[in-house]
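Worked example 3 (structure in, sequence out).
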């Protein structure tokens, strides 16, 4: 085995960090670019569902919280694009891959936000799932990715708490408010379980990503961890979960069958909001071209003057 490969293997085996200037196998680099770019794409597309409710928030307090959260997601995207650029890729190329459908974003953001309670369900369930998925990435073998995750996870905790509190307020409000909260949880529960990816047996990258310690746990392990954490929270909210099969067995909450056909349809671009999300993203990118041109002109002028 060549010496750089041996050094890389020794670092991974010793749970050390791989840094941008270290030698790394091309497959490791490509897997990181794929996962980090898609993670970043998910963050910026993820702004759309909740932003839909900023102008219609029921109070100034709720509006301020929601604005702060949506701004955080934009920041998470920037941290992750910056971390991905340490692998020698250009942000504009990653965005082009998103805009042309060559790279993905999380399935969860292809569902509509039909009522104000959806903002709570997203915070509690989607950001709750994101925390379960992202905390282990703080120990990912690639230094820039792991470090980006530390701050992102801290901010996700605020996102999850504000969602839980919003739902708790509705669930303990009028019967109409309780019904609104229950309807939102019914619509977001199963898509939140799908966020963790396909079953381990169908995970294309899982085994290798775990061997490289990019991922620390499998899709099913993290999904189960999320279910075990969330079921007790639902009863604290006074809301039920839309799974009649849910039962506590041998220390875990056993859940029902996930509709993997629905998951496949969403990944194929046939989810409720896929087209709308990408159209909005492309339009926002085009509308922002003048800002990028101005920044490039400013940089060029100052480089010339230097
Ligand atoms: N949505 C869209 N595509 C998905 C998916 C999902 N929920 N789950 C899996 N896929 C895709 C994979 O990208 C892969 O396709 P590709 O080869 O074209 O990339 C294919 O399905 C097979 O899945 P694998 O299990 O083999 O893929 P991974 O090993 O990459 O596991 C993952 C998928 C668990 C999402 C992993 O990539 C991961 O942990 N990513 C980092 C976290 C992340 O991206 N989270 C997305 C949400 S961000 C978020 O929630 C923000 C918060 O603020 C709300």
């Amino acid at each position: 085995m060549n010496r750089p490969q041996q050094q890389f293997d020794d670092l991974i085996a010793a749970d050390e960090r791989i840094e941008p200037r270290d030698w790394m196998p091309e497959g490791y680099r490509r897997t990181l670019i794929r996962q980090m770019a898609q993670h970043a794409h998910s963050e910026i597309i993820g702004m759309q569902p909740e932003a839909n409710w900023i102008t219609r928030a029921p109070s100034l307090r709720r509006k301020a919280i929601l604005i702060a959260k949506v701004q955080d997601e934009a920041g998470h995207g920037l941290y992750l694009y910056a971390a991905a650029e340490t692998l020698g890729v250009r942000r504009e190329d990653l965005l082009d891959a998103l805009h042309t459908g060559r790279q993905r974003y999380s399935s969860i953001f292809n569902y509509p936000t039909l009522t104000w309670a959806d903002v709570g369900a997203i915070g509690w369930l989607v950001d709750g799932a994101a925390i379960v998925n992202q905390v282990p990435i703080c120990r990912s073998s690639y230094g820039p990715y792991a470090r980006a995750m530390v701050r992102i996870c801290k901010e996700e905790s605020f996102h999850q708490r504000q969602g839980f509190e919003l739902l708790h307020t509705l669930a303990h409000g009028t019967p109409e408010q309780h019904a609104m909260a229950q309807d939102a949880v019914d619509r977001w529960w199963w898509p939140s379980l799908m966020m963790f990816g396909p079953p381990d047996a169908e995970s294309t990258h899982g085994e290798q990503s775990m061997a490289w310690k990019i991922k620390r746990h499998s899709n099913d392990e993290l999904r189960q961890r999320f279910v075990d954490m969330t079921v007790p929270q639902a009863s604290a909210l006074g809301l039920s979960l839309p799974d009649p099969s849910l039962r506590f067995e041998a220390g875990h909450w056993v859940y029902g069958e996930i509709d993997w056909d629905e998951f496949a349809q969403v990944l194929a671009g046939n989810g409720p909001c896929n087209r709308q999300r990408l159209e909005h993203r492309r339009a926002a990118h085009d509308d922002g071209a003048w800002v990028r041109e101005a920044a490039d002109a400013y940089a060029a002028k100052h480089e010339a003057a230097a």
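Notes: The beta strands are 247-249, 252-254. DSSP finds 13 helices and two strands in the chain.
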